[in-house]
Amino acid sequence: MNRGLLYYLMAPLLLLLCLLQSTAASRFAVFGVKPDLVLLLIIVGALLYGPRAALVWAFIGGVGMDIFSGGPMGASSLALMAAALVASLGHRPLSRFNWVVPVGAALLGTLTYAVTYLGLLAVLDNGGWFARSVPFVDTVRAVVLPAAIYNTVLMLLLLPWLNRMPESQEL
Known about the structure:
The protein is mainly alpha-helical. It has a single domain, classed as Arp2/3 complex 21 kDa subunit ARPC3 (Orthogonal Bundle). The longest helix has 29 residues. The two termini are 15 Å apart.
């Protein structure tokens, strides 16, 4: 797939992955942890195209995730946008061809997404707008850290495909 085609297919791919993540991703669960398909595509997009495009796609993917989940509307968008900003740090100053950059982006992006999402839930719970309390520390230990490891391994598997994309700063 070439770089320009992926750019224009990102929004439909994100919506398709939102549907797959909410329905079929549980079939790929390892030790009860599902892959974050939308988050991984946002991280790939951030590494390939930079923060501007990644923020738009993160918003689109977050709205799709919120539609299919029982969470508050907009929380996934804000968390994905935070993860996109963190992952896009590796866009220009660092090379995505160095395996540390995509793997680090996956790890830091997953942690940023999860901590932001859990923080938003805590703020909404304290304000009385979302009456579902989530134990922060237990959730980080039982869900977030295994998900970060899983997403990092998946990014390692995506590296050959990611490194085949041409290096171009602008479309």
